From TrEMBL:
DNA-binding region(s), chain positions: 55-74
Pfam family, one: TetR_N
Keyword Transcription found: yes
Biased composition (Basic and acidic residues): 1-11
UniProt biased composition (Polar residues): 13-27
Protein name: TetR/AcrR family transcriptional regulator
HTH tetR-type domain location: 32-92
Chain spans, region Disordered: 1-31
Species this protein is from: Thalassotalea euphylliae
Keywords (A to Z) from UniProt: DNA-binding, Transcription, Transcription regulation
GO MF annotation, one: DNA-binding transcription factor activity
Amino acid sequence: MTAKSTTDKKQTKPLTNQTDPNTSAKSSYHHGDLRPTLLQAASEMINAGGVEALSLRKLAEKVGVSRTATYHHFRNKHDLLCAVAAEGFFRWQTIEQAIFNDTERPINDRYRQFIFKYIDFAANNPAIYDLMFGHTLWKNDHSNQELRDIAYPVFQHQVEMTKAWQQAGILPKEENTLRLAQVTWGTMHGIARLLIDGIYADANSIEEMCECAVNVFLAKK
């Protein structure tokens, strides 16, 4: 009886201090924080169930705001998907730039990190990766300006990185920089697709493929 009474007290005591999740979400909205919250929640929903699992109504319910609040930031589901993909490109751009700018790490190792981190990003964000590079947003020019404004510069930065690596002598100088960047990206994308599609789900196989790609692209001394 004593134990039960103690438990009852613990159950009733904190009720007045609990925060209503809807109130918290609406408060965030009033402070201009709703858009990143929506994007984070949308990304989680896509990673969990694919783009089919996402709708503005379900997103509003998950975050705890009205559907009208979501329409304030995204005109429709397509607009939301483009924003989620754009956020994915921004995240990868941050990783990519950190690798390139890490001058304390040997340049060969930075190139190796670039290959491995790309595959790691795809493996940890398979549904978002599909959205970033798949036909849903790119076939028949379904991308919007927001997405193009981040996606194209991300690849352009890879071209600039490739040129710098050529000048440093770790990539073949005789190759056309743009074509070399395209072939490098095509190789990484192919490995990522094999992993995401489950064709080579074994981590050791993927690691060996990445290592092979590094060895193939790095200029032989």
